[in-house]
Amino acid sequence: QVQLVQSGAEVKKPGSSVKVSCTASGDTFSRFTIAWVRQAPGQGLEWMGRIVPIFNSTNYAQKFQGRVTITADRSTSTAYMELSSLRSEDTALYFCARGAGTPYYFDSWGQGALITVSS
Amino acid sequence: DIQLTQSPSSLSASVGDRVTITCRASQSISSYLNWYQQKPGRAPKLLINAASSLHSGVPSRFTGSGSGTDFTLTISSLQPEDFATYFCQQSYNIPWTFGQGTKVDIK
What we know:
The structure holds two protein chains of two kinds.
Chain A: E1 3-6, E2 10-12, E3 18-25, E4 33-39, E5 46-52, E6 57-60, E7 68-73, E8 78-83, E9 92-100, E10 105-109, E11 113-117
Chain B: E1 4-7, E2 10-13, E3 19-25, E4 33-38, E5 45-49, E6 53-54, E7 62-67, E8 70-75, E9 85-90, E10 97-98, E11 102-106
Parallel strand pairs in B: 2-11
Antiparallel strand pairs in B: 1-3, 3-8, 4-5, 4-9, 5-6, 7-8, 9-10, 9-11
């Protein structure tokens, strides 16, 4: 089973950017997909996008197109999610998750990184 | 985008009760439907994948069924550790989407 460890909580100013990391261990990083899911306080789960590290291919939810960039460094088994032009509505817990299986399911999750956007 | 609608949004139940949660998709998604359990401040946990396949280590009191547009998660005998929020999620089409969640609390 893969373990995913995320970077810590951050407080950001409106208009700035944040970059969250997700480091995998326990399985071959390149073999699977990494998705990013966020959860605003008291709200549901929202899929933001994903990367397939072995192909370096990405897909993003339309809502975040142009503001989110997901990358992966295979040498360190780390995926990154960068969100720009932050606003207060981006305050949320950001999770990475491994997408595995056919059809895909998320069987391992990071612990979450709380990003607070406040002036 | 495929919309997933869960019902009910919340329910109150007692230990030992049988609980059923439904998830309806806005279009057919075959069996590309997963169920997760989430407790406050924690990451979701996979319960069921491909509509009815119990994930490794998940108690057998959890069962999933359905295909096409209508799906069900059943907990046969609710245990104290099952009080949580449950989400369905489709992986038929990108963007992968989640239902709005069903909160199960103590009656």
